[in-house]
Amino acid sequence: MPISMSEVEFSGYVPGVVGKITEIHGVYYHENWGLDISFETQVGRELSEFLARLRPGRDGLWIANVAGAFAGSVAIDGSDAGAKGARLRWFIVAPAFQGRGIGKALMKKSVQFCKEVGYERVFLWTFEGLGAARYLYESAGFRLSQEHEVRQWGREIKEQRFDLIL
Predict the structure, then answer these.
(1) Does pTM surpass 0.85?
(2) Is residue 152 part of a domain?
């Protein structure tokens, strides 16, 4: 059941959010995809590094909360936008809030930010099988540009890159 966007509060960084984003990623991808500890530690490390160098106007972080509960996140890393494009990262909706419009709202906020900043390209890395996320990426205009088999996070996956030309 969709949530009224008036029920969703969006913010940037708030204390504790590194742990929340890392926990949701670690638990969700372990329970549903069998990813090991290397995935969770990579999320926590890279998210912490991103936040330590976050520059407003170049980078963005959006956190969705519903009635005080963490509902989802997305980030745009613009640190290498000139050479490679801006990178969409840490896009996740907590399982209790999936299918209720929060992912669509987060995607819209991140793409709109990229347009306002003037980025020409946005890309993201994911893996095959995440149908709901892929639907949101493609609805926002992202197109599959690369895929290949890799062994990482304790299993074989088909890694995929999606690009959006703005």
Answers:
(1) yes
(2) no
Q: Give bridge partners of residue 147 from the DSSP assignment.
A: 160
Residue 41 maps to which CATH number? 3.40.630.30
Q: How far apart are CA 42 and CA 85, in angstroms?
A: 21
Give domain status of residue 157, yes or no.
no
Total domains present in the chain: 1
**End-to-end Cα distance, the chain:** 31
Q: Who's near 77: CB < 8 A, 6+ residues apart?
A: 50, 59, 86, 87, 89
List, for residues 8-52, the tens digit of each pLDDT value.
899 999 999 999 999 999 999 999 999 999 999 999 999 999 999
26 lies in some domain = yes
Read off the pLDDT of residues 87-114 as tens digits, 9 standing for 90 and up: 999 999 999 999 989 999 999 999 999 9
Q: Which domain holds residue 91?
A: 5-118
Measure the CA–CA gap between 154 and 144, rounded to whole angstroms: 24
CA-atom Rg of the chain in angstroms = 15
